[in-house]
Known about the structure:
Blueprint: H1 10-26, H2 31-36, H3 39-64, H4 70-85, H5 92-95, H6 99-125, H7 128-135, H8 138-152, H9 164-181
Amino acid sequence: VVIFKESFTRQQWFGAVIAVVGLMVFFHDRVGDLLNMTRYGYGMLMLAIAPLFWAAYALTQKRLGSRLGAQQVLMISYLVGTVVLAPLSTTSQIAALDVQGWWLLGTAIAVFLLSYVTLGAAMAQWEASRVSAMITLTPLFTLLFGHLVALLFPAYLAAEHHDALSWGGAGMVGAGSFLAALPRRGYGPGPA
């Protein structure tokens, strides 16, 4: 909205506010973890910082989209990420994976690649602000697939318990994202 001078309707602003409030409501019972910086709190902090990187990627994709293809921008992002994260990584845990672990790792890599290719395509068609609104659904999909993995592979991931207020917050995120991503009247899908 600020960088690309895109405008939001009142409905889109309302949706964005609902989505942000929904995220806070969803994590209402985990504030102590964040304040005490437990492992879960550290994960929450990473979730709070992650949108900054998503936004940087989205802005880069939008700016360079006319000069480079989505795959080239992705390759640059992957190379930068590899250089930054390589010193922090260890391969010993990967080498110790069993067959299920390899399947889960492969699935995670495939989902990661598919999501960024899809995001790049969306950035070419939609306004950046609308794509950003849809990105707020990422925690909901993480929750959904986390529960699915916990059911299928209980040895790898324990299911999290969420109370009714958290589920209400998740619903608010979904509804707010939907409202924020709705197009303005008269706005087409963008260039093909």
